[in-house]
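Class, study these two lines:
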Amino acid sequence: MHTVNTIELKLIQEASDSKGSLCEVQLNQKNTEIFIRGKVLEQAIWVRENRYLIFTTDEVVFEESLNIYLIDLQKGVLDKLWIGQPYNTDTFNGVQIINDDSLSFNFLYLKDWKLTIYDEPKLRLSIYSWLVLFNSWRGYRYLTLRSVDETIG
């Protein structure tokens, strides 16, 4: 796992009152036909083979949120997480790679988060805590997010 500079975002649709910006992921300036939310690419990380983690924001001054995507170049978006809270903002502070399947970063109230990436989806309960984290309601996940000592994704 390592940071890459070969991923870019091509803006498809600006943010609206109800949705974030829609962008197409580009690899080496070539379209991938993978679409994600968030117009600012905060960081991209090569995980393994054709898999990348992508962190995006939307530049919303008074209510910033962080989108986290695990994509596979052949399969599209494998998993996604969203961190944010109404009327609160923060800045994303870069990723620290812990090992081949986990990393940490800082976002929202200077909180430290630990993200674990699985090769295969694992059965997980999808929980959100006080609108800080939201993810799609699916039982099998490639990503687990922890804040301090609680599992929330």
